[in-house]
Amino acid sequence: MAMIYRTVTGIAVVLAVLLSGCNSHADTKDPETMYDIASELKDISTSVQGLVKYGNGNELSESNLILQAIDNDESRLEIFSDYTLRVRVDGQRSSVLLCDDDIALIEDSGCTPEVDLHHWNTDVANQCSFVLNLDKVCD
């Protein structure tokens, strides 16, 4: 009986280790890495907001808006290579969302001095969708 208990316990421990290693959301929670990424995202969201408010950002696709925001310097996107960047335009306001698969990590409007939402730093894995109320955040 003790042998069966040890085997079952051993299998449970191995499964727990393997499953925790497969959780990409857990891997992305390294604060130093995430704050570096957030800093770069802030620069892009501010540029996107400038294009939307003062330029032709409303007329551009998401990818073209991001490229124009970084002056077509694709090397600035390398830090985001393992993630998905999304842009939302709402009138003269915008926000940029960084996701890992379908999990939101960081969301930022370009109209505030600090990064608006660090989804990665919460206990809940949020879906990759925009949640900022730009009317409230940008006023």
TrEMBL record:
This is Uncharacterized protein. Keywords: Signal. Residues 1-26 form the signal peptide. It comes from the Bacteria.
